[in-house]
Design goal:
The protein is built from 16 helices and nine strands. By secondary structure, the chain is α+β, with helices and mostly antiparallel strands. The protein has a five-stranded mixed β-sheet, with no helix packed on it. A hairpin with a 7-residue loop joins strand 4 and strand 5.
Length: 385
């Protein structure tokens, strides 16, 4: 980092406003100050003028790209010189995996600049991405490189699985996901599942939970793309009897577990049995939008051997069209001895969310015991006041 760079890097994002509105004129001037301190040839006035022109009319990613293009236009020289200037203006590496947001999101345009303008010098761009991912993230920046040269880019990432920084090791996993949230789709990655799984295998015992979480999320993508291949991997890792891989397996298996996939359930000893029975009560039976229902289950192991039991509940609700909305929720994990029962409770709030509306009408709860439908309860939701 340039010795003359400003010290006020840790921009907090505590003010409540639309996410896109953090990428505003204030952020432009802050980034411009960092670059001016690191690169004497940086056209600060031109950058601020170009970056702010039309900024407010754009949505979030449009703003990020607009600022990135203005940065490149104000930085002199070839790509290698631009990348050196970016690195020199960066704050110190974040201390921990969860610390990258301490810098706010002012570094997001850095990654977008690399993605848009760095393909003509892969060496310089990769060096910059390794530095950036230790402050913010390079998971989006690397996507165009993977699309342009998937095998060459994977070669570079594979060489980083033992990097001293947990941020870089996480980047190896996160940047190569097929379903990276907000990330551009890279079809070539789906055809290279074996290479991706080999990288994940090299990271599966990483001491950092930050890295483990990314590996688990990446495996979750594999399970969506190729359920059988993903379960093969989970079964192999589960057999290792290692607490680090065990955590990854459980986290990665969340979606198939909720869907009642028999292979996923069997990983945790949750096998269907006619000896398991259940009842479900929902109270009150009639509520208004915004109110809460209490679910009480009674699960009994009628057999003469202990049972490991996973209990979920599925909610079918009126949808916007003819088809209902269906969503499964975690209820309880139980260990029931021979002849034992348990009565777990859960509260379900019928509160509208940004991503989920609550429509009046009949709503049905279905209790799932080790993936098998075991009991039902209906409630009626009336319009709220």
């Amino acid at each position: 980092m340039a010795t003359g760079a400003p010290a006020h890097y840790r921009a907090t994002m505590t003010e409540r406003k639309a996410f896109k509105d953090y990428f505003d004129g204030e952020l432009v001037r802050r980034v411009g100050g960092w670059l001016r301190a690191a690169e004497p040839g940086f056209d600060h006035a031109g950058f601020v003028r170009r970056a702010c022109r039309g900024l407010d009319a754009l949505e979030m990613m449009g703003r990020v790209g607009h600022i990135a293009d203005a940065m490149r236009g104000a930085l002199p020289g070839p790509t290698a010189a631009v990348m050196r200037a970016l690195v020199a203006s960066m704050p110190p590496p974040a201390a921990s995996g969860e610390g990258i947001t301490d810098y706010g999101y002012a570094l997001w345009p850095y990654g977008e600049l690399i993605a848009r303008h760095g393909l003509d010098d892969v060496d310089a761009s990769f060096s910059a991405m390794i530095e950036l991912t230790q402050r913010f993230s390079s998971e989006f920046a690397v996507r165009p490189f993977l699309a342009a040269d998937p095998d060459g880019t994977l070669d570079r990432l594979e060489a980083l699985v033992a990097h001293e920084s947990e941020h870089v090791r996480r980047w190896v996993s996160e940047g190569t996901r097929t379903r990276l949230p907000w990330g551009k789709r890279v079809p070539a990655l789906e055809a290279r599942v074996e290479r991706r799984l080999a990288m994940l295998g090299a990271l599966r015992r990483d001491p950092s939970r930050y890295v483990q979480r990314s590996v688990a999320n990446h495996l979750g993508d594999v399970l969506k793309d190729d359920r059988s291949r993903g379960l093969d991997c989970l079964e192999a890792w589960a057999a290792e009897d290692d607490p680090r891989t065990a955590w990854i397996v459980r986290h990665a298996a969340r979606a198939p577990l909720k869907e009642g996939d028999p292979r996923a359930l069997a990983l945790f000893g949750h096998t269907p049995s006619v000896e398991l029975s259940a009842k479900l009560v929902a109270k009150p039976k009639r509520i208004r939008v915004g109110e809460t229902v209490t679910l009480t289950a009674r699960v009994t192991n009628g057999g003469d051997t202990p049972r490991s039991v996973r209990v979920d509940y599925r909610l079918e609700s009126p949808g916007a069209g003819a088809r209902p909305n269906v969503k499964t929720f975690r209820f309880a994990d139980l260990e029931l001895g021979a002849g034992e029962g348990a009565a777990p409770e859960a509260r379900h709030a019928f509160v509208p969310r940004t991503i989920r509306a609550v429509r009046p009408g009949a709503h049905r709860f279905t209790l799932l015991v080790n993936g098998v439908e075991a009991a039902r309860a209906d409630v009626r939701v009336e319009p709220g006041e």
